[in-house]
Amino acid sequence: MKKSLLAGASALFVCSAPALMAEEGMWLPSQTGSLAADLKAAGLELDPAALGDLNQPPLTAIASLGGCSAAFLSPQGLVATNHHCVAGSLQYNSSPENDYLTDGFLAKTLGDELPAAPGSRVYVIEDLRDVTAAMTKGAAKLSGRARYDLLQANRTKLIAECEAQANRRCDVRPYFGGQQYWLQQQLEIKDVRLVYAPAAGVGNFGGETDNWMWPRHTGDFAFYRAYVAPDGSSATFSKDNVPFQPKAFLPIAKDGVKDGDFIMVAGFPGTTDRHRTAEEARFYYEELYPYQQKMLADYSAQINALTEGDNAAKIAYAATLQGVDNYKKKIAGQLKGADAISLIERKAAEEAAFRSWIAADPARNRKYAGALAELDRLVAATNAAALADHKRAMLARGQLYGAARMLYRWALEQEKPDADREPGYQERDRTFMVQSLQRIERRFVPEIDKALWEAGIAEYRSLGEADRIASFDAAIADKDMAAIYAATTLGDTAKRLEWLDKSPADFRASDDPFIQLAVATGAEMMAREAADKARSGDLQKARSAVMEARLAYAASQGKQLYPDANGSLRFTYGKVTGKAVDGQIWPPFTTAEGLLAKHTGRGEFNAPQTMIDLIKAKDYGRYAASELGTLPVDYLSTVDITNGNSGSSTLNARGEFVGLAFDGTIEGVVSDWMYDPAINRTIHVDSRFMLWTMEKVDGAQHLLAEMGVAAE
């Protein structure tokens, strides 16, 4: 019998056991049954069963943008998310004459709304069901590449069956290290349009200086709209398309939250590593993260230097730079947080206790000791290869070389039956491939790309000869970079797209230098990929067995485990609260007066003058919080989030919209590896600040009316 969230199944997750702690957990909706008592005790006023039912609110209003989370706030497909989640669309539509990144954007009518960046999607969750038996069928006796290939074939088959339904995008993801597999089915909406984003002085107030910091005064919110064909089917952009009508939308709370209030967040968190081994934690924090941080710092400095004084170039690389700076600072927080909570030592102690539990029972030892030893061996091998892998990946800093490699791989895969092609290169992926190639035109300056690629090649060349790509070295030897860029036609979007319909023979016959380089390195790259796949098959076998033991170990302690985040739908709950840091008390709310105090009128702290005038006049209208005596801007909570949760709607105890999660605090980002309630805090933009900005600053009353916020 299939286990589906629609049926409320939850047996595989040790659901008779109590939760770990109130604040911790990126829970699957199917786990709500076992959490019902805890949710009610924490303050939930809804029926907990509603949080596990994808056929009723609030989950029917939750959406994904394929990297950020979102939710519908009106019956006309209006989608709320974070400002930084629409930055790519602002950048794509901007020019020196219409700099929406800086000045913001507001469509006064539906006809004024702008197409989002190519590849933008709104995904509406419909189902999440257990497919473990179908995924692992025939895999029990296999290992290495054979196991990898079988699992991939089973996954491809399940996805194809799901996507036989029109307009659906489906995926099968591993849970608990491949101990379980669940299929996520979503309605794919392809026509996404930019509706409203406040100025950068609101949506990115504080910039990189305040990123991951508290106190925070950022209005990190924006709106898209989802469109479909007149018959309701998903369709690409057309002037004839109409706003999508979701099954439900989130009501806007009449009253905002207060200190101590219950809140919850539903979204699509990207990746956490809480179930990884102690040795993996040691390697990441002592070796890999420090290296990544240095590379990102160098990359950021290079982009800033190369775009200095050139506004068009700054716009072209703005989205890239924002992402680089965000991750760079997050890694700094990871390292700081790991020291603060003694992460490596705590992981080692926890793992020692787990291994002792296995060793204490002969039956458990016979069942799991071999898998533990194999996982240790594979982790050591993976760690040993990881730094070299990252240095080889520096070659991807060149966008045209990356495009050439992707196009050549596309041509090779097209010679296979569609079901046998690599993920990302099937017919279902063609539209994404086209849009990925189109995006380059607005995010590419030849001289800058050349300089960034040269820096990436220089870092790659720090590898020893045995770890380098011999075919790349031979093909690039004595080549003049300026001549390569002058001779290529891949900088032209139309020419790039033409290669999607060419054969491998066409690639081999080409005189384009980037195409030649892709062909020259293709076989060696594929050989490295084959070795990685063999190791991946072995890792899945060992890790899934070890995770089976971890689930049993947790159950023996009366604990319930949740799987690591993997981009699938989760919910988390907690409360609005501040915290003590180094003898200082962080209050749970920031206010408009704090924003005014930070405002300098330049750089990262340059709020719109209209906003400053309103704050000075204390013109907050109905949006002031009586208990604060002023307008709240952002607030802190204990909900458990990570990257991918950006844009997640924050709901109160009644399931009403009270803001958007958009960040964490710098020392708390170590929660990707271990949640600690003493330091973990999520930052939300308060719905009252959003509504005030829309009404008083930007004149978006038509959107407020659409959201059911009555005129004052």
What does this structure look like?
43% of the residues lie in helices and 14% in strands. It is of the alpha+beta class and 712 residues long. 45% of the residues are buried. Helix 8 packs antiparallel against helix 10, helix 8 packs parallel to helix 12 and helix 12 packs antiparallel against helix 20. The longest helix has 44 residues, at 513-556. It is globular and about 70 Å long. The strands form three sheets. Strands 1, 2, 3, 4, 5, 6, 7, 8, 9, 10, 11 and 12 form a twelve-stranded antiparallel beta sheet that branches. Strands 14-13-19-20-21-18-17 form a seven-stranded antiparallel beta sheet. A two-stranded antiparallel ribbon has the order 15-16. It is built from 24 helices and 21 strands. It has a domain at 395-560.
Uncertain runs are 1-21
Rg over C-alpha atoms, rounded to the nearest angstrom = 25 Å
Task: Give me the number of helical elements.
Answer: 24
* Number of beta strands: 21
Average pLDDT level: 94
Shape: globular
Percentage beta strand? 5-15%
End-to-end Cα distance: 54 Å
Oligomer: single chain
Estimated helix fraction = 40-55%
Sheet with the most strands, sense and barrel status = 12 strands, antiparallel
Class per helix and strand makeup: alpha+beta
